[in-house]
Amino acid sequence: MIGHRRPAPRTLKFGTDTAFQVEVRRRVDEYFRTTGRRERDCWPMYLKTAILVAALAVAYVVLVFAAHAWWQSVPLAVVVGLVAAGIGFNVQHDGGHHAYSRYRAINTLMAMMLDVMGGSSYYWYWKHGVFHHTYVNVTGHDTDINLGILARVTPHQTRRVFHRWQHLYLWPLYGLLAVRWQLVDDFRRLVTGRIGRHHVRRPTGWDLVALVAGKAIFFTWAFGVPLLVHPAPTVLVHYGIAAVVLGLTLSVVFQLAHCVEQAAFPLPAGTRRIEQAWAVHQAQTTVNFARPSRVVTWLLGGLNFQIEHHLFPRISHVNYPAISKIVERTCRDFGVAYAEHRSFRDGMAAHFRWLRRMGMPDGPTSNSPARSAPLQ
Predict the structure, then answer these.
(1) How many domains does the chain have?
(2) Residue 252, phi then psi, degrees to nearest 5
(3) pLDDT value at 369 more than 60
(4) Domain that includes residue 56, residue range
(5) Is the pLDDT of residue 1 over 80?
(6) What is the pTM of this model?
(7) Residue 2 domain-assigned (yes or no)
(8) Residues 97/314, Cβ–Cβ less than 8 Å
(9) For 169-205, how does the pLDDT look when each residue is reduced to its tens digit (9 = 90+)?
């Protein structure tokens, strides 16, 4: 997010009753005023960044220059993939949402961690920051729930015969996510100027420089340096292991928050309007998981608190456990659904059930209810 970016044109409108949004914002603001805590620039975030970046550097150096047997190199490649995902969840994600710091330069630097890992902070901003966060779970508008013909994850997508087995075959395919955006997707978007059905202005100026430089840095550390000391097949195998672990981790964490039974999948009315107001829509299309687990929260950058994140994307994730009680209470007061799974395992099971349900011939269609009963 280096250059000036014009907001994408809003093709959908939301309901106008903003009472819930105003009140939940007021209560959260009051929490920060009374506690003196910072919304951004939190010291635990800087400490976490140092730990994760150091861990990735150490794992990479040992993998490339010190590992001499497969039983050493394979676990290290897995660690590289997991720590890279941790940097994405914790550092890049907060930076990309301007939630890391009150200083734009620091947010930009943290967001560009994605460029160093082979992605593009420019296209991430449009795909995730704009299209997903604005139109979450709206089929045809939220590009993060469009898996093409490979899968049907909303009731409003076309079902194909082979989707009957998607709850089995899709899991390993999730691992290809990182390979796609590192080697294919960003280049295709640069050529076509599109993300899904959305037209996106091609990067220019410093945005283009960052994209090209990021790819060059990534190809250097992922392939160039290892090829100096290892044969090509060895480099490709270990890149594949790290990339699959990274892609699988990123994909699954996202799916647990949105592609489960308790999430709504609304369609706009004929006037191209979503019935609910924006904040209500964010809460009802999102599901939390594993809130009590400090370990999960630390590792996933607070993305198990997805409702809080969608309502307050510019608040650092280290604050989500504290404000989640405020958000939950406000949701109850306004009759807004606040769904969660108690553990990561419960979330995984819910996503498995949803994939199986979406793939069955008698599964929900665009004319049937898109949401199951709320969790008890």
Answers:
(1) 1
(2) -65, -45
(3) no
(4) 13-359
(5) no
(6) 0.91
(7) no
(8) yes
(9) 999 999 999 999 999 999 999 999 999 889 999 999 9
